[in-house]
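ok so I'm stuck.
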Amino acid sequence: MISKNIILFFCVVSFVQKCISDSKVEISTEDCISDSKEKIAIEDINEGQHEEVTDEWEKKFNKYDSNGDGLIFPNELQELLFHEFNGFITLNHASRCIALTNLNGSNQIGLDHFKHMKPIIAVLSRRDISEDSGKVNDEVVGEGTVLKEDLPKEISEDNGKVVCKESISEDRFVERIWNNFNNKVFDKSTEIDELFYLMGHNEDDPIESKKLKEIEEMLEASEKLNNMYKGFCMFDKDKNSKLTAEELVELIKYAPFQEATVENSQKSINNFDTNNDGVLDFSEFVFLMLNPDDGDTEFIKLFGKARITREQINDYLKLYGIQLTEEELEQMDPSNQNSISRRDVEKYVNSR
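replied:
not stuck anymore, here's the structure
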């Protein structure tokens, strides 16, 4: 389980450059997502812009508003995210997202609140997919060929050649997913059944490796969102699901370029406050935490160079009463080169 110190350190690194900006932050087209099945991009996270994109979001929302009352429940939100944005959250976490968005105690959200969730959906939809990821390994089955024993094989014919595609049984799928994502995405193993339902999976059919890879990427994105939620909760001292200037100043104090005052904290909030209510809700906090493509710049601004030693990390955090354990530092520096980059930190956070 990832420690509070690691989450706090990750928040600091992600926040430093953005908190010193004097202007409202906007996400450029390079930061947009276009991972929905119909390739509909989020052109801008700020409210009230890009009418065509807004129309597409309304169409998708209405598609899952089963009774046409302008509201969707957690199960409808879960289906919408899975089928339209290739993202997954459990029903429990869908309920949490709704509660963190509407802030009125209801377990439903309307279209305006759904559009306000764009940063959350951006995290759930993003993937780091390599050119070869998800490819199915084919091999010719001939006399004397030894097949891998850890995966069952689906046999078929291709232009007269007998080939096999790697797949995994339902039991092995559940075991693998649970081992990798319990207490990170799933609170209980029965929640994996929600995945099967969304996939339209027949329990007698194996899961192909390409689908397994796709699902694991969804769950990694969901885990990243959960880590952001843990960071949000660390600063939400009064547990009202909003961050005030007084609460966010606890994060600003780690940024060496700005005096940790309530006034400066409010300026930072205003840069990410998309609904202009003077505080940060969870979706706006996620907006703040979304990392630009040149995120290494933030790390360099904080430490003066792109790579630092384990000692330098702890020397900096010692100023604020935080120390990472040797085990935590070793996991961030698996090559034992005593050289840690921002990407090493992010990779460690997202792997927990």
